[in-house]
Every structure is written in structure tokens, then in C-alpha cells.
Amino acid sequence: MAPARASHGKQKAHNDSSRILKRKRGQDELSTLAQRVDDLDPKASIKNFSELPLSEPTASGLEATHYKTLTDIQSRAISHALKGRDILGAAKTGSGKTLAFLVPVLENLYRKQWTEYDGLGALILSPTRELAVQIFEVLRKVGRYHGFSAGLVIGGKSLREEQERLGRMNILVCTPGRMLQHLDQTAMLETHNFQMLVMDEADRIMDMGFQKTVDAIIDHLPKEHQTMLFSATQTKKVSDLARLSLKDPEYVAVHEAAAAATPATLQQHYVVTPLPQKLDTLWSFIRSNLKSKTVVFLSSGKQVRFVYESFRHLQPGIPLLHLHGKQKQGGRMDITTKFSQAQHSVLFATDVAARGLDFPAVDWVIQMDCPEDADTYIHRVGRTARYEQVGRAVLFLDPSEEKGMLKQLEQKKVPIERINIKANKQQSIKNQLQNMCFKDPELKYLGQKAFISYVKSVYVQKDKEIFHLKELSLEDLASSMGLPGAPRIKFIKGDDTKERKNASRKMTQLSSDGEDDSDAGGQKKPKKNDENQVRTRYDRMFERRNQDVLADHYSKLINDDGTMVAPDADKGGEDADEDADFLSVKRRFAAGDAGLDQAKSDSDDSDDQRATKMVQIDGKEPLVIDSKRREKLLKSKKKLLKFKGKGTKLIYDDEGNAHEVYEMEDEDHFKARGDADVQRERFLAEETERTRHADLEDKELAREKRREKKEKRRARERALADEEAEEERGAQLLPFVGDDAESVASGPEEPTRPSKKQRVSAESDDESEEEPRPRKSKSKAKKSKSADPGPIETLQDLEALASGLLG
Ligand SMILES: Nc1ncnc2c1ncn2[C@@H]1O[C@H](COP(=O)(O)OP(=O)(O)OP(=O)(O)O)[C@@H](O)[C@H]1O
Predict the structure, then answer these.
(1) How far is the CA of 388 from the centre of ligand 1 (A)?
(2) Could you tell me if the CB of 137 is within 6 A of ligand 1?
(3) pLDDT at 15
(4) Could you list the residue range(s) of the whole structural domain that residue 147 is in?
(5) Distance (Å, rounded) from C-alpha 527 to C-alpha 517?
């Protein structure tokens, strides 16, 4: 027993002294690192990551992901950012901007010894979910040996679930809308010590679609923090910088002096193809490039769906994919993963895929619809020729768009040349599309929606030097899409084209009040109906003559007296809100409803000749019994409950008299209490005071909670310090003996591990093929394994990560 106890004591002594030495070495390393950052000359040209003053966890993360040499933007931006400067970074697409901000984020928090108790340290904003996911993946890989907790906040999951996790996060990668929602509503989200705000694709985020959201996010953050903005098309808009309170920012624009704004390895061409021939040209292109990986950009989700669906029917002989903002989040993730992994494929996409996405080895970028401006062009073509790889881009232009677009591109230093389509290669799919639309009403319907959304997208474009709606041959376009005629479209007068980037949202308004009765070509249509007669949007929809495809079907639904029986409500699907013109509602006609008689006669005509009955329950709206199912319903008390209503809540006064919760006050009483305006003022003053009080109480409560939290933290720290002091006292008594002591005192260089609280962020168990680190010892092998982030396959994987990144 005695020797065993002695050896146990020896082991403990060894462990204790080893811990103390490690801690001391950690502190020494931190102060050396801080000194190296202070001494760093930000103007010095740095080639390799190993020359930068980086912590061991970041250096190991970079090594594990095979990043050795810095790109230009990394070399110029990282040094300044490490020193805490605000950065305005601009560099061509695919030039490595992501690492240029992720490395400083990890390093600056590391040097501050950030822990889970310090709350949110850095926020990385992305304009799209896909880009946020991509940034998060790079963060996981490069930050794998750090102990920070990192989360992805992109919506698509219940707010509540996200809320529970966010309180513990140090770094968040997020889309602006969802982040603001959390900042507003998640009490656990601690931003007091916040350090760094990053905006990738900053010009897009600062664009009008996000302006207010970003302002509100910044309101939630403490004034003192570092800000970094990155994009391939950065602007130095003073107003934006002022809003972000950038302090003397370092403008790092590495390619500003370059001859071209796009990568040198990118070949860029355009073809002039009249609008009605675009689909043929695209089809011919795809057919002649079956062994390529291609991204095709279109102007709207509906265009994407129509082209994808119709080409799928035509079976070009290459896998097709499609991506747009209205798809469910899980589906979008699957598609980006599939396209990333594909060798040969065509991805039809909206501009949701234009910025930042890093699909490997894309051969071609085709812009089937003209981009809204040169910046969008640059971002779209940037999906190919990334990081020193080659790539090709082709822009399709209608003759009316050629002059204006070329002028824009020239101004932005985009080198582009015209090429012609070989006539013998051009195949026409017009007849096939017409046949398909004839046989498949769904496709025809999709085509109509695509046509409308395309025309509207041209209409809302700001740059009228490029986009000339009246010069487009819309009838021919409709026919080239297989449609029997061009659907008529209504436009709002005086459209604020500045908001065109939110075109899809805007389109919902286009068919509402204040419409201009122009047709698709912008021509005025005479008003058929009496001005004074109230017409609903359904009336207007059925009056349209040129909806030939649907006309037969719909005309059957219109009653002689002009009332209508609505078609299938589900038809609108995901675009329901945008397709108000095509929308329909399922209605049951009941007593008091103008359509009752018609409904009755309809049911009389039906197969089973069932007569319509009406039942009134508890004075509620009459329930119409016009089917067997509804007849059965009458026999089930349980089912009838839902028609009974919920009852009225009453409150009783001291005398036992029942009152409704809200009762109208007797007018004489009201008047007796004085002038209405005075009463209103008084009421407002009282309510303001009450709200102010409640607000103060809330704030006090929050302060109290913070105080408690801080105290708990201090207590923990005190306990830790006591423990250390105790350990140190004990250590003085323990002599180092034999080989063990040797290995502790001067032992093999072990990478400095983050503190206990900072243990590694990623949690996947998978071994990644990117794991190149030699394994020196068993314990290291174990460390690498737990640190390896492994591949992400689904959104669930990511969400699990977001919840579990604490070491
Ligand atoms: N130092 C580096 N060494 C090797 N490859 C790198 C380096 N930095 C970045 N890359 C690679 O270059 C590619 C492009 O990087 P990244 O996505 O950061 O570009 P970007 O400048 O943000 O592009 P965009 O403007 O389109 O958003 C990525 O595949 C990335 O892995």
C-alpha cells in the first residue's frame, strides 16, 4: 500500500507543477504575442502566415486547412486589423477576403482571453444565408483549435430554440434581419463587452434593403468597437461610414490600381441575342457544354423556376439545379452542397448566388438576364475564376441593352469582348416549349408568372440607359416561352426605382392601389368599367382577355351575374403573396353572402344533387351543409365545438354584477369628466409615465441580473485564484525528481492550449481529409480528433454546431 500511495503522491505533485508551468507559459506567450502585434509594421509586406504574430491555435488552424501564403488583401488587411484598426477592404472576387477578417476576429478575441462569460465578442454580417453558412464553415475550420463558441444565425428555425443557445456565443455569423430580431428579443444575448463588427459584402448590406436593420443592430452595440467592411465592389460612401461610426478607417483597396476590376484569369464575353431568342441561345449553349460546370443567372425566382422546369422536361443531358430565395432553407443548403460537389452541372440562380459563394471549379457564368448594374455583373462573374483559377463568363444582351451596359462595364474597368453565336449551333426549342405548355398547364402557368416577373423586373430597373421596356418584343418573348400570348401587366406610376433591389418584395405592390393601366409594353389601356363601380382584384383578373391559357377554365368559374366561384387556393404556392393577380380564395357562400344563391344552384347541379342546408349555431355565422362530410359533422358534438365560438370573458364587480372586459363608457359620463382633448392629453401623460416607470423597472432588473452574473464570475475567479495560490504554496514543497521533472521543466514543445474555458470550438467527431498535422503523442491525436470540424451536410448539422460549440 505504502509504495502505491507514494507513487500517487509523486504523480499528483508532477501534475500540479506541470499545470502551473503551463499556465505561466500561457501568460508569457500572451504577453509576447501582444508585444509582437505592437511591434508589427502594418506596411511591411508579409508573404506567409507564419510571419504574422498569430496565436498557436490560429496558426494550427491555418496549417490544418493548408493556408500558407497570404493573398494580397490578406497581407494588407490582417496586420492593420490585428492592431485594432477599422478596415474598409476591397479586393476582386475570389481573392480571399473571408480569411482577411476571420483571422483578426479569432486573434483579437484570443489576445483578450475571451471566454464564454464575456458574452458576444464578434458579429459577422452577411447579406445572404448561403454566404453566412460558407463563412461559418471557414470559421469552423480555421478556428478549430480555439475555444470560442460560435453560432450561425440565419433564421429558418424557431426563434426560441436559437435564443436558448445564443446566450453562450462569442462569435456569431448572421444575416441582418434575424440578428436584429435576437438583439431585440433575446435577453440572454450579452453585448456589453462587444469587440468586433464585420460586414462581408458590405456594400450590399449597406444597401437600402438592409439600411434600417443595420442601423438598429448598431444601436444595440456599444459605441467602442472595431469595424471591418469587405466587398469586391466597395464604395467609400461617406454617409455610410458616418452611420457606422468608423474611426479613421484603413482603406485597403488592393486592386484599385489594377487595369481590370475582375480577375485576370477570367475571360469575359457578351453575345447580342434578341430577347425572344435568349432561351434558344441558352439551350444551345448548355447542349454544347455538357462536360462543364455552369452557373446561369436570371432576374427572378420565377424565371429560374420556369427555365429549370422546362429545360428539365427537355432533358439536355446534364444535371440541372436551381437556387432562389423562395426555396426552403434546407433545400437551398442541399442545392449549394450538390452543386459544390458536382463535376458537371448547370445551376440556374437568382442574385442570391451572386455574392460571395465559393463553388469550386465553376467553368462558366452565363448571365441570361442583364444584371441591374456593373457591380452586380462583377459579383456574378466572380463565381468563376476564383483564387488563381481560370474561368469564362458570357453575358446575353438584347440589342436595346448593349450600348448602356457596355458603357457601365467600361466605367467599372471590366474588359469584355463581343462574340457571335454560330448559326449552325443554334437550336430552337420554341415548338417544344409550346407543345409542353399546351400539354402541361402547370408549366404554362409558371411561364406566365416568369414572363410577368421578368417584365416587371425590367420595369423597376433604375438605369434607364440600359433598360428600355418599350423596345423589347414582349409578344415574341411570350411566344418563345411557349405561351399563347403575352399576359397583360399593370404597373405602379412613379415607382421609386431606388428600391429596385427589393424588386421581389416590391412586386407585391405592383398590382395594388394606384395602378397605372399600362400593358406590358407600357401602353395605356382604356378603362372598360364604370369608374364609380367598385372592382375587386378578382374582377380585374377575370376581365383580362389575354389570359388565353387560363381563360376557358376560369370563364367556367364566372357566373352569369358576374359573381365568381374561385379556383383552387393552393395554386399560388410559395409565390402566393407575389401573385395577387393570379391568386384565388376558396369560399363557401352562406346566408347574407351575395353568392349564396349561386352556391346553391351550383350544388344543385352537382352529381349527387344534394340540397344546400344551413344551420345556425349559437348565433354564429350560419354553417352551410352542402356535402356529406359537413352533414356528418352535425352528428359529432366534438367537431361542432369549433363552430361554437369560445364564449365571452366576463368580470364581476364587488356587487356581483357581470361586465365585459372592455365596456364602452357612457357618453354623458365621459363628457362630465371634461374636454375630450384634455382627457386625451391626460391619458397620454399617464400612460407615458407608466411606461417610463415600467421601463426603469425593467432596466433595473436587467442591471441587477448583470450584477449578479458579474458577482458570480468574480467569486469563481476568486476561488480559482485561491486555488492557484494554494497550488503554488504546495508546489514549493514538491521537489522535481527524475525524468518526469525533466520533461515538465524543459519538456517537448507542446502547442499552447487555450484555457479550460476556451477549449476547442468545433465538435464533430469525424476525421477530415484536411487533417495534415503529424501526431506527436496519443493525447495530441485525441485533441486533433475532437477539434476536427468534419463535413457539414445539413442545416441540422450546422444548428447542432451552433448549439454545441462550447468545448
Ligand atoms: N491564403 C490563401 N491561400 C490559398 N487559398 C486561399 C487563400 N485565401 C483564400 N483562399 C481560397 O480562395 C477562395 C476564395 O476565397 P474567398 O471566398 O474568401 O474570396 P472572396 O474574396 O471573399 O470572394 P468574393 O468577393 O466572391 O466574396 C476560397 O476557395 C479560399 O479557400
Answers:
(1) 10
(2) no
(3) 67
(4) 51-253
(5) 8
Q: What is the pLDDT of residue 475?
A: 93
Residues 6+ apart with CB under 8 A from 485: 475, 478, 546, 548
* Residue type at position 111: R
Cα 587 to Cα 551, 564, 581: the distances in Å are 20, 10, 17
The pLDDT assigned to 219 comes to: 93
Nearest CA to ligand 1 atom 1: 70
Q: Cell for 110?
A: 484570443
d(CA 469, CA 460): 10
Residue 98 to residue 100: CA distance in whole angstroms? 5
Look at residue 590 and give its three-state secondary structure: coil
Asked if 480 and 346 sit in the same domain, the reply is yes
Q: Which residues pair with 251 in a beta bridge?
A: 88
Mean pLDDT over the full length of the chain: 76
Q: How far is the CA of 563 from the centre of ligand 1 (A)?
A: 60
Residues 109 and 246 in one domain: yes
Residue 580 grid cell: 395577387
Nearest ligand 1 atom, CA 134: 17
Pocket flag, ligand 1, residue 109 (CB < 6 Å): no
**Structural domain ending residue among the three candidates 204, 224, 253:** 253
Say how many C-beta atoms besides its own lie within 10 A of residue 36's C-beta: 13
> Are residues 377 and 346 part of one domain?
yes
The more confidently predicted of residues 13 and 620 is: 13
d(CA 345, CA 336): 12
34: CA distance to ligand 1 center in Å? 27
- Region of residue 645 (left: phi > 0; alpha: psi -120 to 50; beta: else): left
Lowest mean pLDDT among 81-95, 218-232, 240-254, 714-728: 714-728
Mutate to test the pocket of ligand 1, among 69, 95, 137 (most ligand atoms within 8 A of CB): 95
* Same structural domain, 148 and 290: no
Classify residue 58: in a domain, yes or no.
yes
Please tell me the distance between residue 74's alpha carbon and the centre of ligand 1 in angstroms.
10
Would 545 be classed as within a structural domain? yes
Which residue out of 97, 125, 130, 362 has the highest number of ligand 1 atoms within 8 Å of its CB and is therefore the one to mutate?
97
Same domain, 213 and 237: yes
Q: Are strands 364-367 and 650-652 parallel, antiparallel or unpaired?
A: unpaired
Ligand 1 pocket test, pick from 98, 105, 229, 359 with the greatest ligand atom count within 8 Å of Cβ, gives 98
Q: Residue 384 Cα, ligand 1 centroid: separation in angstroms?
A: 12
102 belongs to a structural domain: yes
Residue nearest to ligand 1 atom 27, measured at CA: 356
**Euclidean distance between CA atoms 141 and 790, whole angstroms:** 8
**Could you tell me if 249 and 275 lie in one domain?**
no
- 196, 225, 253 — which closes off a domain? 253
Nearest atom of ligand 1 to the alpha carbon of 93? 25
Distance 356 CA to ligand 1 centre (A): 9
Mutation pick for ligand 1 pocket among 173, 228, 387 (CB with most ligand atoms within 8 Å): 387
Residues 419 and 308 grouped into a single domain = yes
Given a cut of 80, whether residue 12 has pLDDT beyond it is: no
CA-wise closest residue to 455 among 441, 472, 480:
472
pLDDT of residue 585: 29
Separation of CA 254 and ligand 1 centre (Å): 14
Ligand 1 pocket residue status of 358, Cβ below 6 Å: yes
Ligand 1: distance of its center to the CA of 358 in Å? 8
237 and 274 together in one domain: no
Query: Using CA positions, which residue lies closest to atom 25 of ligand 1?
Result: 93
In a domain? residue 800: no
Tell how far the Cα of 170 is from the centroid of ligand 1, in angstroms: 24
Across 402-414, average pLDDT: 96
CA dihedral 330, 331, 337, 341 (to 10 degrees): 150
Q: Are 458 and 469 in contact (CB under 8 A)?
A: yes
Domain count within the chain: 2
CATH number assigned to the domain comprising residue 181: 3.40.50.300
